[in-house]
Amino acid sequence: MTFEKLQLDNVLQFIDAQLETPALTSDETERRKTLLSQKTSICTWSAWLAKSPYNTPIQTIQSMELHEPSAALKHFWTGFFLEKKHVPFNVIITYDLPYFQEDIFRQTCKIIIDKHEILRTVAVFDTTTLTVKQKILPKVSLSSHLTIVDISHHTEEEKLKIIQEHTDKATDYIFEYGDEPYYYFTVLTDGNNRNFILFNISHSIFDGFSKIIFRREFLAIYSALSQQKDVNIELPEVQYKDFSAWENNLQNQDLKKDFQKYWCSESDSRFPGENLSTFYGKFKLSDYSYRESLKRRIVPYLINDSEETVSAFYGVVDKAGRTAARSYRFTISGDKFLKLKEVCKNRSVTIYPIMICMLNILVYKKTNLKDVVIGSLVAIRDRPVLQKLIGCFVNTILIRSRVNERSNFNDLLTDAMISSTVASTFKYYTMSKLLDDMDIPFNTINTMYLNMLPALPNEALTDFSPRHHQHTVFGHFDIDMYLQLYTNGLEFMCHYDINIYTREAIVTLFEDFIHLMELCMDNPHTPIDDIVCQEA
User: Looking at 7-21, 311-325, 361-375, which range is the least confident one?
Assistant: First the structure.
């Protein structure tokens, strides 16, 4: 059973429980009609899930010299080669190891690299056809990717400075996507059973969940080898190239018709006429479709600008061009976090639908807009064969919600659960192809962008680091929100377009977000129109 099916069943149980309570007022009667409509919708989507093309198994394919890359690889690689976007997208993993043995370290890394083909993957770009392919190297020489630095002769203050310098370098490092794999490892050793290990890996081949997988495998293998124990290596059932082939084949299915049913279930219009950025930035949404916007950007690079040539590029060039951005960090901890966990427990939901619900309410309260679209990055790893595989398994889904001002928090949370779950059933429908198929302008979804990042088990919320500001100079959307759940709180890193928002506006926006969330959780049965934001 898929995650979406479980979520829909969970919502269905909640609705059935609500329907057992008789309607005594006109508002309750209207809400009952809404619940019955939602129940019908859930049953419809549950039936669709049972026969959707996503159920086809991922098959292993024959190894070839070149493979068609996944949508994620195309996005990173073609954007770099075609538009020369020299922007670092790196995943950095650090360890403080109590002991370091170089031969065991090399052997551990080799086992992991041999196991995961994506760590032996490079891009091959054809300058004639302007297309990119995935090439898997048979083996990798770790020597060219490993640097060992002896810092034992330095003072403690100097050691900390050197470690920071190497971390800064990794953050800013640009992988040129050449003929060598896209990572490097650094070991800073001081000879006193203290060793700082840094892995720097390109995000194009490595997502947030890969970080968890890599950490787990590295520590298990390194520990076993150090103690001269047998290493239990569980080989993956499929490799990343197999997933890429499956995903590419899926895009040939007719997904538009089914998605249209979801997209138009909340509104008859093709897309909302306004969003949060139009409210703050005082400009209208682009009239250009995704394809037209893409064509305007890539034609200067093409030998000819025929429609056939342009069609080859939708979904592979960077989504909308990066914009100048700044960062703002805020956290939810203490009693507020405990209250949030209590709501999750009582409603049998995760943090995610609550955040979607609260963003919908925030947009409505700030702009009076009732048609809200939120873009959300999701991991497409729900299949067991993908959950232990390193690679970049991500896509952006579009969550469209209709906000009823007389609804309360409980009602809107149910709405958000349904809307986000149904939207998630299309997570394998690559966003760029979706935008092109539906003829939707890219900046329609610029209201908010939510990315839930995985944290390691038992990882706690830490103090703010100035680096959160220093290296954020671009953004995909008008507001990019990266949310990370820790054992003792939530951390939000907000990257906002400085051409639209001032820092003061963002600070006020998210102060209102937290205040609204507190009010909604404390008054779950109060219509949101009766809940007032705090005065600025």
Answer: 311-325
DSSP notation for 66-130: SBPPPHHHHHHHHHHHHH------EEEEEEEES---HHHHHHHHHHHHHH-GGGGEEEEEETTTT
Q: Is the pLDDT of residue 474 over 70?
A: no
CA distance readout (Å), 207 to 70, 148, 305, 307: 13, 26, 34, 33
The CA-based angle 138-140-145, given to 5 degrees, is 160
Residue carrying structure tokens 């064969």: 385
Sheet holding 183-189, edge to edge: 90-97, 195-202, 183-189, 146-150
User: What whole-number distance in Å separates Cα of residue 7 and Cα of residue 27?
Assistant: 27
CA 302 to each of CA 305, 379, 416: distance values in angstroms, whole numbers, following the listed order? 6, 33, 42
Strand partners, 149: 188
Q: What is the DSSP letter of 321?
A: -
Tell me the CB-side half-sphere exposure of residue 215, using CA atoms within 13 A: 18
Whether the CB-CB separation of 391 and 205 falls below 8 Å is answered with yes
Burial class (CB in 10 A: 0-12, 13-18, 19+), 313: buried
pTM above 0.90, yes or no: no
Cβ neighbours for 5, distance < 8 A, ≥ 6 positions apart: 46, 49
Q: Tokens in use for 438?
A: 């539906």
- Mean model confidence pLDDT for the chain: 82
Q: Return d(Cα 168, Cα 149) in angstroms, integer.
A: 16
Residue 372: how many CB atoms within 10 A of its CB? 25
pLDDT at 313: 53
